[in-house]
Every structure is written in C-alpha cells, then in structure tokens.
Design brief:
Largest sheet of chain B: 7 strands, mixed
Oligomer: heterodimer
Order of helices and strands of chain A: EEEEEEEEE
Structural class of chain B: mainly beta
Largest interface: A-B, 26 and 23 residues
Number of helices of chain A: 0
Distance between the termini of chain B: 39 Å
Low-confidence stretches of chain B: none
Radius of gyration of chain B: 13 Å
Chain lengths: 110, 117
C-alpha cells in the first residue's frame, strides 16, 4: 500500500482554525469509515485524537474534529493553542487486518 | 496503570536478528488485538504487523513479510516481534499499539532498533 497523502506542514495563530487533509483511495479512506488521527509531540509516542472519522476519545478537547468526503479525510483543530503544535498523522484501515498511515503533517502555532 | 512497555531494541548488524518485547499491564491483554508500528528517524509512522487476541490470525506489511514474526503470550501479557535478516531500512523506533476495533488507542513509548555495521 502507498502512504496516505498529507500536507507536510500547516500553520495558524492562536485562536484560529486549521484543517489537515488526508487523501487515500477507495481501498482505504474511501472504502471504510475507519479513519483515525494521531498527535505526536517530539520524542513522544503517538496519541489517539479522533477515530471512526469523527469520534473523539474521552479527554480529547472538542476543538478537534474529523470528517470525510470520498477518498479524503480531514482533521480540523479550532481555537488553536500553543500545546497543539505537534505532528499529526492520519491512518486508515485498508482491509484484511492491514492499516496505512499518512506521511504526517507538522502543525506550527505562530 | 494501563500501559505498554517495549524492550529489546539496540544496535544490530545488517543481516542480524533481534527480538522485541512489549509488556502489557492494567487491562485484559488477552481480549485485545495488538500491532507493531514503526517510525524511522525523522519519518512518518508505518504499520508493521497485526495479531488477533488469540494469536491465531496474523498479518504483515509487505516490507517485512518473510523476515519478521509477530507472536504473543497471553499468560505473560506479552507481545513479541522476532526480526530476522535485518536491513538498514529497518532502523526505526518500534511501538506496540493496542487495537480497538480498527484504531490504535494505546501506545507504548517505543524501543529503538538501529541496523548498522
């Protein structure tokens, strides 16, 4: 499988909103509602932020929201805060107990 | 405390072998599917392998198929990854991750594997 396509970087000022896209194919993103998003701070393990396209685990602020249209999923972070600065990875189930990740997007809070 | 702790990483020569372990605690390990995910230095995440809760169903990424073997011991609450015929491109931090219905809801801190002569 090829990695899902994410922008290398996005940026925004505190309080603003940013959206990170994640483009795959009909065999992964478009074929299943099993898209998840992970936040990773430098030197740390990834942390689940969104699952099943738009569900949030307990403890994740509602500033984080997900959506999907066709073969492209998106993560929107509203009310940007300094602690949101991190790398973000999308992930999709690709069938037969296999998964594919995106290349990652570095979010800079200006 | 609910956690996963990896161990077993280190420096190995190309063509060598290494066995990673992941110790689970704080949850019913034998009821969860598990995965290994790796991250090369400065690169993104890459799914490596999946194992069912019972250990009877196993899947691998094409990049490691035939060289890596995933296994688990539910009596010891442990997950393993046997890595053979290691290559420079296998250099990465290896994370074990708990699967919860097609997403990864719990991650360990990772263990670094360096393949170099």
């Amino acid at each position: 499988q090829s990695a899902l396509t994410q922008p290398r970087s996005v940026s925004g000022s505190p309080g603003q909103s940013v959206t990170i896209s994640c483009t795959g194919t009909s065999s992964d993103v478009g074929g299943y509602n099993f898209v998840s998003w992970y936040q990773q701070h430098p030197g740390k393990a990834p942390k689940l932020m969104v699952y099943y396209v738009n569900e949030r685990p307990s403890g994740v602020p509602d500033r984080f929201s997900g959506s999907k249209s066709g073969n492209t999923a998106s993560l929107t972070i509203s009310g940007l805060q300094a602690e949101d600065e991190a790398d973000y990875y999308c992930c999709s189930y690709a069938g037969s107990f296999t998964w594919v990740f995106g290349g990652g997007t570095k979010l800079t809070v200006l | 405390e609910v956690q996963l702790v990896e161990s077993g990483g280190g420096l190995v020569q190309p063509g060598g072998s290494l066995r990673l372990s992941c110790a689970a605690s704080g949850f019913a390990f034998n009821t969860f599917e598990m995965n290994w995910v790796r991250q090369a230095p400065g690169k993104g995440l890459e799914w490596v392998s999946h194992i069912s809760a019972s250990g009877t169903t196993i899947h691998y990424a094409e990049s490691v198929k035939g060289r890596f073997t995933i296994s688990r011991d539910n009596a010891k609450n442990s997950l393993y990854l046997q890595m053979n015929s290691l290559r420079a491109e296998d250099t990465a931090v290896y994370y074990c991750a708990r699967t919860n219905r097609a997403y990864f809801d719990l991650w360990g801190r990772g263990t670094l594997v360096t393949v170099s002569s």
